[in-house]
């Protein structure tokens, strides 16, 4: 569904207010809740979204919320974007729509390319296709232990989890390759 639980909305907004970020990537924005939240907190930020459903893009007027909206499936959206970076990535009620292996691959890709990644996922919430949209079916189960390998801080509230991953761009122990120059934020999308 294009809507998500609001159980962590206040926590996410507090995170956005306390972390100085200039670029954001919202994966599966649906109705654009996080894009609007970012605009309230940081009106001048560069915000990109990746959405697979054209009808959501037009119906929810996502192009009026985000600086760029890429129409793509998350599973393949980043295959040709080796230099993509963002200060903050939001994956709100989306990762459960991917096969578990695809979700793990996505997190591994993003950990190199962001300062922080916030993942919201339902717990034991059964959902199949919705209004003839196969992409809305849940395809994997996520639990706090799934984020341990990423050193994430995980909270669970009302059958929903919030995992906060610190990406390598914010990790003081991360080492960067020879002649490392951070690419422009959201390179390839904007």
From TrEMBL:
InterPro entries: SAM-dependent_MTases_sf (IPR029063). It comes from the Bacteria. This is Methyltransferase domain protein. It comes from Enhygromyxa salina.
């Amino acid at each position: 569904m294009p809507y998500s639980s609001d159980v962590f909305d206040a926590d996410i907004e507090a995170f956005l207010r306390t972390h100085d970020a200039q670029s954001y990537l919202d994966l599966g924005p649906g109705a654009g809740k996080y894009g609007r939240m970012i605009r309230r907190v940081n009106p001048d930020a560069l915000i990109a979204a990746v959405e697979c459903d054209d009808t959501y893009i037009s119906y929810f007027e996502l192009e009026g919320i985000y600086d760029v909206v890429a129409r793509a499936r998350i599973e393949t959206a980043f295959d040709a974007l080796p230099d993509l970076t963002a200060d903050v990535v939001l994956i709100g009620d989306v990762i459960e729509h991917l096969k578990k292996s695809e979700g793990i691959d996505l997190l591994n890709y993003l950990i190199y390319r962001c300062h922080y990644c916030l993942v919201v996922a339902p717990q034991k919430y059964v959902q199949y296709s919705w209004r003839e949209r196969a992409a809305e079916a849940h395809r994997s189960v996520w639990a706090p232990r799934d984020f341990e390998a990423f050193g994430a801080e995980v909270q669970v509230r009302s059958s929903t989890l919030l995992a906060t991953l610190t990406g390598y761009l914010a990790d003081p122990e991360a080492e960067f390759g020879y002649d490392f120059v951070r690419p422009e934020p959201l390179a390839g999308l904007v």
